[in-house]
User: Which sequence fits this backbone?
């Protein structure tokens, strides 16, 4: 087993091909150990070069609403009334910490998605 850091796209592609060859390797074998190390290297490379930012909080809410077949009215119990729901979903009001908590607990939206990123 020759393991080297993934520094270039060529290294990355070569490593992915090797991983594909090792996909049926048994845990605890040399091939299994090589597969484990190579997947760790690929994960690190992808995190550095292909990182995905969490979605916009409102996009995350509307996506989850669509998944659950919810309407704006259904959000009233979570966000606190029709006017508040409208203000949030039209981006006229920011989510409060309590709203974020309720959306996370009741709709299971990841906190990272609800917090958003600073502009």
Assistant:
């Amino acid at each position: 087993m020759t393991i080297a850091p993934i520094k270039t796209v060529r290294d990355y592609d070569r490593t992915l091909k090797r991983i594909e060859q090792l996909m049926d390797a048994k845990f605890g074998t040399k091939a299994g150990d090589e597969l484990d190390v190579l997947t760790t290297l690929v994960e690190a490379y992808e995190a550095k070069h292909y990182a995905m930012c969490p979605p916009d909080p409102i996009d995350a809410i509307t996506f989850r609403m669509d998944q659950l077949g919810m309407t704006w009215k259904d959000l009233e119990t979570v966000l606190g009334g029709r006017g508040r729901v409208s203000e949030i979903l039209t981006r006229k009001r920011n989510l409060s910490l309590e709203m974020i908590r309720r959306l996370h607990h009741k709709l299971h939206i990841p906190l990272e998605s609800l917090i958003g990123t600073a502009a």
Summary: The chain has a mean pLDDT of 92. The chain has two domains: 9-49, 57-115.
